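User: Reviewer 2 asked us to show a designed sequence for the structure in our supplementary figure. I'm pasting the structure tokens here. Could you produce the per-position amino acids so we can include them in the response letter?
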């Protein structure tokens, strides 16, 4: 994705996902970067991230649920 963005071949508003460490990949935690799907939703306009990602109270509520 990084290369596509650099060459202006990525969709407008595309973002580079965080690098995922290979060590411990199969020992995933609910907060690990692999679960971050920002940019995969067609309705996402790039300006306001979803509450489950940006609002700590929502994240805590999800964990408690």
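Assistant: Here is a per-position design you can include in the supplement:
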């Amino acid at each position: 994705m990084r290369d596509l963005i650099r060459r202006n071949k990525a969709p407008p508003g595309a973002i580079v996902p965080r690098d995922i460490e290979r060590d411990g990949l199969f020992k995933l935690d609910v907060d690990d970067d692999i679960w971050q799907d920002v940019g995969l939703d067609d309705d996402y306009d790039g300006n306001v991230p979803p509450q489950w990602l940006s609002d700590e109270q929502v994240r805590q509520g999800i964990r408690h649920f």
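For the response letter, you might also mention the following. The CA atoms of residues 20 and 34 lie 6 Å apart. The helical segments are 2-6, 51-54, 56-64.
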